[in-house]
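sorry to bug you again but im stuck and you know this stuff better than me. what follows is a protein written twice so to speak, once as letters and once as structure tokens for the fold. mainly i need to know what kind of three dimensional shape the backbone takes. anything you notice is useful, everything is just below:
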Amino acid sequence: MKLLPRFLTTSLLALALFSPRALLPAAFAAENTAAAVSKVTVTFYGAPAAARGFTWYTDASSLRSDLQLVEKAGSAPDFGKAASFSGRSSASTNAPGEIVHKAEAAGLKPGTEYYFRVGDAALNAWSGIGAFRTAPESGPFTFIDLADTQAKNENESVLSSATIAKAFNTLPHAAFLAVNGDIVDTGNREKQWDWLLGKAAGSLMRTTLLPAAGNHEKQKNSFIEHFHLGTPPGADTGSGAYYSVDYLNAHFIVLNTNENSWTYSDLSRRQVNWLKEDVSAARKRGVGWLIVMLHKGPYTTSSHATDRDIRGFRGVRTRLAPLLARLGVDLVLQGHDHIYARTKPIKEDGTADSPAVTSGTLNGLSIEYASDPKGPIYLIPATAGPKTYYRNKKAGQSYYDLFAVADEHHAAAYGPDKKDPSRPVRGQVQNFTGITIDGSRLTAVSYEIDQSKNGAQPFIIDQFGIVKGSGGLKAGRI
């Protein structure tokens, strides 16, 4: 008998034991497989307290795009009393014979849980039943951040989906899931979306996504056709998307690093101008926190840290990072480099700030909160999927002095991958981070899953925080 790889065995067990879908009634299965609904995602579209966006796929027999919502009032919903919304459909760019459906729900109640299903009412073809909770009007919240699920086959999709399931089991009250790009390995290979969104459906049907496009989703429409997002009017979405969302007192800005211009590597001038205008508008609304998400980050510690589009004269470290500091951004969430790292606060001139710190204990471990730092902290939560990278040996000590955490990848302890010795063994270690915002305090706790330790269950590897003495938006310049 052929034995499954250890990571796949533990991942299958995790999906069985910890998938949020296991909490749903058995009746939450699709009702009609004649025009089967697949690849359902829920995203922020409009105000998080009052609206959501939905995307799903069917075959060509279903052209209606119907969405039904029921306010949660018991263990199972009565869709005979549902609020109904109609969307629109179009032919998939990369999946011949498949139809992409999008719809949005608005006018929802704050802090309320809703059941939903999507499909075609005329055919009685519906998805399984999912659920989400709108943002409350006030209070603290937690979200999960991860990057680079990037599974290239079905078995690796099981692994990545198990990471997501374990993250929600660890942080069951997380309000949403932020993904810093490279959701799949090849964006125009639709089967990879089938695998990942299918295997992770138990988790994704119970949350809202805040996704960024990675370079592996830069193929035409491969990102935007899977997520319904409120992009700026006239923005090019062929290679990805940039947009922003207010969630309570935090403003999230999601950038698309698949663009390019003579002025900025990986960004168009139009996108950068939008970024400045977006931050200006957020300041006028009085938001308390500015958080940027992007795939190709300015400050990481593996091979991409010395790429030309990162450190060159137009690179994101050279051109974008000073702007983010100038704008008063608090935290930058990155992907692309498949290793865990965290900087000190980075000032506009590229040097590290040394703010006053408040020390304490959290989860039985020490934690330090930076008080009113003069620049954003850059975090890369390593990878939630199979592929890991070694620490960059060319960056130099002066560069690493900018980091609070810049260790070798923990998967390196298991040796090189047999198929690709330039990288640590594939599938051994995954990571994610839980971030809580409570008024003027932000707390981040990062977790690791090692397939050979702790029963392949998450354990803490790092935690840090930021506190604002003024309780408001950091000073910045547009």
